[in-house]
Structures are given as structure tokens and as C-alpha cells.
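Hey, can you fold this one?
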Amino acid sequence: MNSSTAQTLRVEIRPKGAPILVDAINANGKVFIMSGSLLRTASLEKEWEEDVDDPEETSRILKHSGTRIDLLNFWQRIPETEPKYPYYREWRQVAAIPITNYKHWWDKQINCKTRNMVRKSHKLGVVVRQVEFDDEFVRGVTAIYNQSPVRRGKPFRHYGKDFATVKHELSDVQGKAIYVGAYYKDELIGFIQFVVADRYAMLTLILDKVSHRDKAPINGMIAKVVEICAERKIPYLIYTLWRRGEHGEFQKHNGFVPVPIPEYYVPLTLRGKFALRLRLHRGVKGVLPESMMARLLRLRSNWYSKKFGGKNARQ
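Sure. Predicted structure:
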């Protein structure tokens, strides 16, 4: 295909665990996912792995694609934290551990409480290791998925999946992903899936069994992931975006820091220009104050807790 033209297509994504087909456009050799109805926004399908190398040319191609696209959305990836382009921008806070070596992380980037949790996990007999993707591992993951329909105050997207489904979904990235498991008396009580990209490693799944949470398996597993990254000379470990509340505290205690990254919005139509001017490009979430968002999240958590009878609603 000529790189100066655009090609419309349908691609499969899994925003909430279940696969769905969405509209997309291949422009300048990169696939852009379309989102929104009143305001149509194009964003890179692999935004954590790729860059928009030539935004001006990409914007031109999208404008003349024959499909209405109001905004082009893209962002710079770590370690490129200084703005490179003149477009309207906001700051995306990425949660990252800068990695030099394991000792530095252990001594300087986590606190005494986290170090004690890792030690505790070891003393209680938890064995943390890199694991192979096989049927035994998949059975352990399936059991972890099916503990409760609710996690962190909202429906858990993996709950109810059987062995075959879990194996298929995890094996989609087989060969790219690395798995770390926490075992107690040969039982898988936690696992991490992470992917090594071109300039960092990124956590994509991190779960444990609530019945064994007293043994701090997640702290032990993150320590192992940092060790693996240090051995491979991977400079950053990413845990997607910086989070609010308890999740943010968890990130901080394990050595993650918020790294501000420029995120750009390029209007391609008059509608896109007006949306940016009125700050409507992020939808309702973008106009609500932080305090209101926190309150709505608490209300959501309480509602799901009541709906599911409070069973493990804080997982």
C-alpha cells in the first residue's frame, strides 16, 4: 500500500476483556483506532509500542481519508519527556520505575515497609520465579480469575472465563510476554504478565489470590520483575498510567513514580477545533473535577458491592 494513502479496516481490541471489532485506518504505515461518535478521534492502536513519526503527514493523510476524523490524538513515550511538536498538548502521567540496577531499586527506590513485605513473602515460604506458559500455569491463572466478579470496586473483566478462553487470550501474546508466578506449596497464588517493548518493559496483568494476600505475593513478584529488567538492561518498567487512591499508593510504595509525558490533540475539522476550545475532547471525565471523580468512583464501588453481596468487593 502507498504510504501516502489511507486504508480503512476493522481491527479487534479487548478494552474490557471481551474482543470487539472497531473501525480503524492504516495511515502512513500505522494503524489508528477510531473512537467516539459525535467527536471522532483517531489514536494509535499500539500507542505503548509505536510513535507518530511524522504528525504533519499523518494529519494530512487522515484529513483526506474519506472518513470523518475530527481529532488526531498521540503522545510521546518515555524517555522523550520534552515536547517536540507545536500542537495543543496536555500531560499524561505515566507510572514508571527508572531502572539502573536491582540494588539501587532495593536501597533507594522503595521504602522499609515494602522491603519488609518482600522479605515476609520469602520467609512465609512463597517462591517467586519466572514461569513457562503451559497448561498448569493457565489452570492456576483461571483459578485466580474466578475468585470474585468484582475487583477494585467494579466488575472484573476476566471473571467467569474457562480454561480454554484463558489459554487462548494469554497465548495471543505468547513469545512476546514474560510471566512471573508466586507459588505457595506448589499453588499459584499470584502472577504477573509483562511485555518488553523497544524502550521499556510494561506490566500488562498483575493479580493475586485474596486468600493468600497476607503473604505479600505481589511485592515479591514486582521485585522479581525489576530483577529481570535489570539483568536485561531494560531502563524502565511501566505500569500504565499513574492511578488515584490506593492503587496510586501501591505504585508509589513499589518504586513507581509519575513521569509527565506530552499528549497531543490535533484538530482535523472545525468540529475538532471547537471541541478543543471547549475542552470537550476528553468527554465527561475530562470536565469533572478530581474531587467529583473520586466521589463517583466511591459510589460505583459501593453500588457493585451491594449488587454482588459484598463478596470480595475490595479485591
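The chain has two domains: 6-91+262-306, 96-258. Let me know if you want another pass with a different chain boundary.
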